[in-house]
Amino acid sequence: MLIAGTARADITPPVGIAHAGWGAQTHQRAEGVDMPLYCTVLYVSDEEGSVELAFLDIDEGTISVKRDQILRDAVDSATGIPGENLRIAYTHTHSGPVTGVSWIVEGADLVEPWLDSIPGKAIEALNKAKQNAKKSRVTTDSGNCEINVNRRPQTEDGTRNTGRDWTGFVDHEVLVTAFDDEDGEPIATIVNYACHPTIMAQDNRLITPDYPGVTRKVVEENVGGMCLFLQGAAGNIGPIDGFTGDLAVYHRAGHRLGLEASRIRLGMDPVPRKERLMKIEPSGADLGLYVDEQSGEPDDRLSISYEPFTLPAKELPPPEQVRAEFNAAQQHLEQVRSKTSDIEEIKKAAFPSKRAYIAQNIAEVFGTGGSVQLPIQVMRIGNTAFVALPVEPFAEIGVEVKQRSSADWTVFGGYSNGYYGYMPMRYAYPEGGYEVTTSPFAPGAAEQAIEACVQAIDAMWRKSL
Q1: Which of 71, 158, 282, 412 is deepest in the core (most CB within 10 A)?
Q2: For residue 121, how many other CB atoms are within 10 A of its CB?
Q3: HSE (CB half, 13 Å, CA atoms) of 406?
Q4: Where are the domains of the chain?
Q5: Which of 99, 437, 341 is nearest to 349 (CA)?
Q6: Beta-bridge partners for 142
């Protein structure tokens, strides 16, 4: 049997921290907290303890490659779990703190101390999860929830914006992985779904985990145990109701997804069973009485691969040029802020600062481009493959990997193990739009990533035969 345990740490940042990071927002600091932010940990090992791995589900917008490595090294050093055996996933909430150097100045001094506090809290939670661990059985099932939509509509002049495209590709699948103890009691539930947490947007001034936080809460209230959320392939997928300051909207969406995940979870049993008719009880009608008997052993295989692969990147301007452009945009924004309180003028100056900020982050990782090496992580836990990429992948990537996978179930996600930017499909490049414009990848990178993921799953499943 497998061994599994969970724990959670509160990582809610202080009120007043640099907040959100929307180019259209006029505030800079978080003015309050609607729901706490968490680091939720699931520890898994084989019965002998020879293979150990862990999921860290963190309520954060993105985790840079540098910060990811800091966290990975700290956990490895403190717990002995190899860094490559960690799935460091971020929900991608857009209403948490701004991370990294930003065009937002006020509250920026609180960001680094907050980021520095996360590794210690994650380690403490992981140690508790390991202490709480018990024999476990695991399986996966799926359902459907329609709170998401393709977010790349085309206007009459042919340009793409970030809104609702009812004809565009979308993945409504909800994947739920159940970890139960020997008595059938829930230990953990993993919910995997693809949708940008951009419900709370520029008009919101409160810290929130967006809909993933509500989803976890609803599952835990209905099922028991602890719930983790793994963001799916949401690069071109957003909420149907989004870009608002109305807190009720994200609560409602998270509740809907949480109820669907709970429905799936409550019908799951990781133990293979076969029904047997015990007897027919005479009554007003003859009553068939059945017992469901165990008909086999659950899959308890556990393995992991964490391999780098090379993808084509765009040719990019020199990093020093990008930094200079960001500094100039930031200085202009500060000048505007000091001279006027006109919201539209501030928004107009904030937009180029936001874009320059994105370009600077890309330059730090990709340099002048050409190619980049990034990891594919595949975990086998029982009959389920967990596949992670450190990008914002278009939904088509996740769906194709799931369809072509050798595993019984494949839980695919981006937003894990660092951050390298958007990964659009080849067809999207002539269309343009935000995801394509800001992506550091060259056309064809997504298609190569699909093949690499499928091959990595195939290799792992062949080894397990």
Answers
A1: 412
A2: 17
A3: 16
A4: 2-269+301-313+369-463, 317-366
A5: 341
A6: 175
